[in-house]
Amino acid sequence: MKRIGILTGGGDAPGLNAVIRAAVKTAINEYGCDVFGIKNSYDGFLEEDGIVPLGMEEVRGILPRGGTILGSANRGNPYARKVIRDGKEVTIDVSDEIVKGMKKLNLDALLVLGGDGTLHIAHELAEKGVPIIGIPKTIDNDIGGTEVTFGFDTALNIATEALDRLHTTAESHHRAMVLELMGRDAGFIALQAGVSGGADVILIPEIPFKFESIMKKIQERHAKGRKFSILAVSEGAKLEGGEQVFSRKGDEIYVPRLGGVGQMVGEYIEKQGIESRVTVLGHIQRGGTPTSFDRSLATRLGAAAVRLAARDGFDRMVAFQCGTITDISLAESIMIPKRVKLDDDAVVTARNIGISFGD
Ligand code: F6P
What we know:
Layout: E1 3-8, H1 16-31, E2 34-38, E3 51-54, H2 56-59, E4 81-85, E5 88-92, H3 95-105, E6 109-114, H4 116-127, E7 132-136, H5 152-173, E8 176-181, H6 188-196, E9 201-203, H7 211-223, E10 229-234, E11 246-248, E12 257-258, H8 261-271, E13 276-280, H9 292-310, E14 316-321, E15 324-329, H10 330-335, H11 345-352
Parallel strand pairs: 1-2, 1-6, 6-7, 7-14, 8-10, 8-13, 9-10
Antiparallel strand pairs: 2-3, 4-5, 11-12, 14-15
Bound molecules: 6-O-phosphono-beta-D-fructofuranose.
6-O-phosphono-beta-D-fructofuranose binds near residues 11, 115, 138 and 258.
């Protein structure tokens, strides 16, 4: 193994830079490799100046830094790239150009840091013979085969702090405070932050909710003299028999953008006579410095990915299972995305301590 490439795709997550740093250091220290960063996800293979050498100097000081020094893109699917041809926008498949780009760079391995979308593409490219290794990344923690992804712990801490802050003002003003959190298809952030932050109601995509059940919980609290309530709501939560709420429809370029379910819930509560306010935490959950847990997990995954590359463990993904780093096939990880299980201990515990899921 002489030359390794690294790219970061999809929405960023705190810890990406820690992975890059660990991979570069391991590749240089242990294997004497040259490492190259591919900028802006797979796009770097197609762009002028899209490839940058990564040495010790380039990764110095990046461990605590959020974001990614390589840039990312969450609409950089090489199988469906939008380009303008004869003044019209068309979708073309440039996956063969990515393969060519890799060959031109003479890469022995490509480490791909991404969520489900980026890892899907990685698996398809691996089937074309590209020596790819996946590294799971997402604050949503929804990737199959790994118990936890880096970025998740940081997002949880931010969400929990937000809930703590909402608590004091909720109590002063006797209001229902709704906090809309990230979590497209999986409600891990709202569930775990809701439990840690003492929420009264948690709404997640896996458990459709009913307005009446939410109101029942709030009114029960009122009857006991607790005249404020805290609601932790995943952006992907939906009404029983209803649809997810989007702030922007998808088009040829952008995927649909979730947002608005918190507002919908807050408005309903207010119509029932209980003053309510809505906070959307948004990308605050994704930015900034990673927690100690995320830095350590990211570092272990970065080093493990290079060791896996040295063993020719391609078309596989490094993963965290039972406290240790292991690896699984990319196909396995993308086949069954991770979701909150209804009999999950965290769900059962939340119910035990009186939290309502609005069901
Ligand atoms: O996938 C992670 C995620 O944070 C989702 O929870 C959220 O819907 C999405 O990214 C937002 O992405 P963008 O940065 O494109 O708005």
